[in-house]
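Q: Convert this sequence to structure tokens.
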Amino acid sequence: MSLKMFDLTGRAAVVVGGAGGLGQAIAEGLAAAGAKVLISSRKTEALERAKAEIKEATGVDVCYFAADATNEEQVIALLESAKQQLGGKIDILVNGQGFNKKIDAIDFDIDVFRQMLDANVTSFMITSKHFGRHFKENGYGKIINLSSVRGKIATKGPGNAGYCATKGAVDMLTKQLASEYGPFGVTVNAIGPNITMTPMMVPVFEKRAADAGVDVDTYLKQQGQGNPMRRMGMPEDLVGTAVFLASAASDFMTGNILYPDGGLTAIG
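A:
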């Protein structure tokens, strides 16, 4: 046994949704652990910003390719570009794309619901299909899906019918892909964080704090009190889990959802 089992040197990783938030944090962690990394998102400007931020944080240059993961042709192009930029063989796929729109179920715009299914679920299937085929050819691969505690437990308040439904679907897709891809030497697992303090969530928290009549710091402390760890999740709280799932340390683990959630699912 050795800590070298967590070393990603020589591995090539593609992080879809890697231009911000949790995806960018995971990309940064994989790069710091030694992997060659390509980040992907829809907007080139966001990718260029994320590339610069990862370089500043780790000293590592990452590659990027702009693609819409809900478009199968663009995902095929992403895979081909990743192979060219990273040396011909990809070992790790992280599905970190998606979005959340909070609407009460009785008022939910079905067009928005369909968009969430497409971005949060269908895109995972598209990337896993094409990267999975590549992994099968190589006899090795790691797929890491970004899920949520909301794939396992619902919220007490309204607004999360779309998000909970899509993350529950991600969890079951993870298990089914693990079953199908296991004979090829490919593992498929998911990470289920609690609500996390990403840059994208800052305006959301500011609005919620204002609605509650408190400052943001007070609101965040109140939110953290619901977890056994008594604090909000931060992007870096997911990084160790992602590196573990990307590394040889998890070679016999597949079909699992791991929860870096401060203990919420233990009591939820």
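The CA atoms of residues 122 and 215 lie 38 Å apart.
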